[in-house]
Amino acid sequence: MSAIKQEVIDYVSILPDSALLALKPLLTLLVSEEPIIETDLTDEEKTIIRRGRKEYAEGKYVSLSDVLEM
């Protein structure tokens, strides 16, 4: 078993069931052979995405390096 798999197993083993329940959909997506792409976005979600793309283009975002320095 790889080191990363063992590390994940160690984390999972101490999580409460409520956290595992929240994590289950993500794990299901990660192990599925076909990517799941949501195509039925609401108008509100589309607006949020457009706004985020505009703000990103204008440089209005926090870079990963800035986050890691916090």
Low-confidence stretches: none
**Rg on CA atoms, Å:** 18 Å
State the secondary-structure class: mainly alpha
Helix content: 55-70%
Compute the separation of the termini in Å.
34 Å
**% residues in beta strands:** under 5%
Q: SSE string, helix = H, strand = E? A: HHHH
Shape: extended
Number of helices: 4
- Total beta strands: 0
Structure description:
The protein is an all-alpha fold and 70 residues long. It is extended. The two termini are 34 Å apart.
Tags for this model:
single chain; 4 helices; 70 residues; mainly alpha
Quick recap:
With 70 residues, the chain is mainly alpha-helical. The chain has 4 helices and no strands.
List the helices and strands and how they pair.
Blueprint: H1 3-14, H2 17-31, H3 43-57, H4 64-69
